[in-house]
Every structure is written in structure tokens, then in C-alpha cells.
Amino acid sequence: MDSNKIKEGVKLILEGIGEDVNREGLIDTPDRIARMCEEIFAGLGSDASEHSVRKFDAMANDMVVEKDIVFYSVCEHHLLPFYGKAHVAYVPGEKVPGLSKIARTVEVFARRPQIQENMTALIADAINDNLQPKGIMVVIEAEHMCMTMRGIKKPGAKTVTRVTRGVFEGNYDLQNAFLSAITIDG
Question: Tens digits of per-residue pLDDT, 23-52?
Fold first, then answer.
């Protein structure tokens, strides 16, 4: 990441909206924004497969669900945040990952500028490629600040995307079992 370009860009934006970049409250803002970008866009330099190296033998062949994986991302259209929860289900093949690996995969893809639809597919495909389960389904529900703060201004509206691969494709009983599992609280 080029911190100097980010800092210069932030200064230009501040000047463009009529702010004084030398005002006390703004002097360090370009540096803060550059450091923030390194954090929130860290997924750009990450490979999701590095989180799937360690796998364990699986005796079970029923669906495994990890739900309510909180994430924060940035819409590539307006560079505003979207945030919510990812839910992942897979039917194991011969191996299963450590439990944190699914959440780490979500995190890698969340930390990039993108649209939610692509993020959902990227998560499903990365887990499918690296884990080789019999099937996978990913559901993401998120609130987009570009719909909350500007434009239509509809706070609380959520976008839900889902992707199915393998045994989940066209198997509505299995999909519904997953959807039922992610709506159970507690």
C-alpha cells in the first residue's frame, strides 16, 4: 500500500470540500486515514488459502454450520462501509478445517473494496477449493452505509446474498436446513 498517495489523496479531498488541511483537528487526519486503510484493506495482500493449510480427518458427513461471523467491509462503488454477518455451511469431504479457519476466510475477503455479491462467491469458492467439501453454502446479510447515509437513506435495510456449491445446489431441503439453523438464536 502506498501511504503517501493515500495521504495526498485525503488532503485533496479535504481541500476539495472546502476544509483547511492545517486546521488543528485535521492536521493528522491524512496519516490516520492511511493507517486505517492498511487495516481495513489488509485482505488485498492476503491469500485465503493460507488459512486452510491445516485440516483434520472427518468422521461425520452431516452439515457443519458456522453462523453469525461478524464482518466489516467497504463498498467499491462509494468507498463506504457495509457490515453484517456471514453464515457458512459445508458438508465435509474427507477433511475439516479448524473452526477459526472459516471465520478467517471471511475476514480475508471482507477486508477489500468490493460488492457484497462478489464477496459471497469468493468466500464460497475459496472454502470449496481449499477444503474440497461435498458442498458449501454461504449467506451474507449486511447493511450498506451507501443506502443508509446517502441516496435512498434507508437505515436498517439489509441486503442478503447467497451462494451454493456442490450438494447444496438445487437441494432445497439441505438449503432450508441451513437457513433454519442460522435463524435459531442461542
Answer: 999 999 999 999 999 999 999 988 887 766
Of 75, 107, 114, 175, the catalytic one is 75
For residue 47, what are the CA distances in angstroms to 19, 103, 122, 184? Answer: 39, 14, 12, 32
Q: Which domain holds residue 20?
A: 3-40
Number of domains within the chain? 2
Tell me which of 8, 15, 76, 94 is the catalytic residue: 76
Does the pLDDT at position 78 exceed 60? yes
SS3 of residue 61 by DSSP: coil
One domain, residues 137 and 169? yes
The catalytic position among 19, 132, 143, 146 is 146
User: Any idea what the CATH number is for the domain that residue 18 is in?
Assistant: 1.10.286.10
pLDDT tens-digit profile of 156-186? 999 999 999 999 999 999 999 999 999 976 4
| 75 is annotated as an active-site residue | yes
Active site residue 37: no
| Same-domain pairing of 62 and 96 | yes
Is the same domain home to 74 and 143?
yes
Active site residue 144: yes
User: Rounded to an integer, what distance in angstroms lies between the CA atom of residue 97 and that of residue 70?
Assistant: 19
Residue with cell string 450498506: 144
Q: Of 37, 107, 114, 144, which residue is the catalytic one?
A: 144
